[in-house]
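Amino Acid Chain and Its Fold in Token Form
===========================================
What this section holds: a protein sequence and its matching fold, both as plain text.
Structure line: whole-number tokens from a learned vocabulary of local backbone shapes, matched to residues.
Purpose: to set a sequence beside its fold so the mapping can be learned.
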Amino acid sequence: MGGNEDRLKSIRSFALQSRLFIAVIQVFFNYLIPDHDAKVFNPPTIHRSSAADHVVVFLLGGFRRWDAIYFLHVAEYGYTYENTLVFFPLFPFLTRIMANTILLPLHFIMNYSSCLLLAAFLLNLVLFVTSADILFRLSRRVIVSDIISFRAAQLYCVNPASIFFSAPYSETTFALLTFSGLLSLETNNLTGCAVLFGASSLARSNGLVNCAFIWYKIVKDFLKDMLCIMKSPQKNLLGKAVLMSVAVFAAIFKIVAATFFSWLPFLLYQCYSYKVFCNPLASYKDLPVHVLNYGNNQNYKMPHAGLSPWCHQSVPISYSYVQSTHWDVGFLNYYELKQIPNFVLALPMICLSACVVVNYIAWNPVYFLCLGLYDTMDRNRKKVDNVPHNAGQLYGINRKLCYVYVVHLAAMTIIACLFMHIQVSSGDI
């Protein structure tokens, strides 16, 4: 027990040090390398700057780039432009709450934009250290190796997308909720898992995919129950039929309930988006003047500018429309000659993911073909799944219990290659 606590302390310390290191090199490179003017989203600020604001900008200004500007804008003004709808509300909401509570005294010495930037950095700092802790606990349960779990948590702290876990992005929030949900699932807490996965769907759209972990576990447990009923010595066929029927209805109920709790937050957010951008009574007076002027100059769709095409769809989901219209996300849409550097950038992560999947299949071909739902080699299963802690490095991710995680990795890799902006694969896979 003492060894585990020592490792947890080491992980927390390493995670904290990695965030501080990222912050330091961010300051260095922010002032060493001139900013590239990509003509992207960058609304003006009307706040006056104090000495405290200059300090915050000097220390954290490098984090306020690209998507971070969207998240900070949503935290300060809400969803004023249609293209901001793909930046889900949980992280901006938490940032705003922190800026308006814990950092409230700082409002007297710095403007609100600086306070939000500081709040976002501190929030991600706390969430990241916690997520590294949860990842280690989750890995110990699945991989059954303290050594590999410890290294996995360390690699998580220095992953290629590490900068996005400190900048005002939702990656850290999503990672913490996903890891926590998976840990709850591994301890058979389906309700807690569904709630956490539901919260993750308010951080990133990937949270909807997390529900598949719950479906898989319910189906696997259902098949085990059915096999036990079929193999039971009871000769009463009617009794067995009743037990099977109960098992079927219980599994269906669990799937429906888990899906409801996992997807409800996402659906509520879509309802909110519909209410804001499909409201014929919306007025330009609801927006600050500088926000309105910037939107007009950039030809952004604002709530008062008429109904968007997605408002008239039979299922008015803003996310898919905004992704395809404003971000050109779609099947093979990113396959252009000018994107070759981005494909090269993503190649290491794609290759690493492919190697993990192929290696797992090579170790467990029969188990993989059976979808991990039934193992015909009971003796081998016991040998592999009951590996002692000091022998975990012989198996690691190849343990059969890792099947669903490997399939998830494969699915996310394929989706990244075919649909997404490929350079974000290092953070999304």
The chain has 17 helices and no strands. The first helix runs from residue 2 to 32. Confidence is low (pLDDT under 50) at residues 376-394.
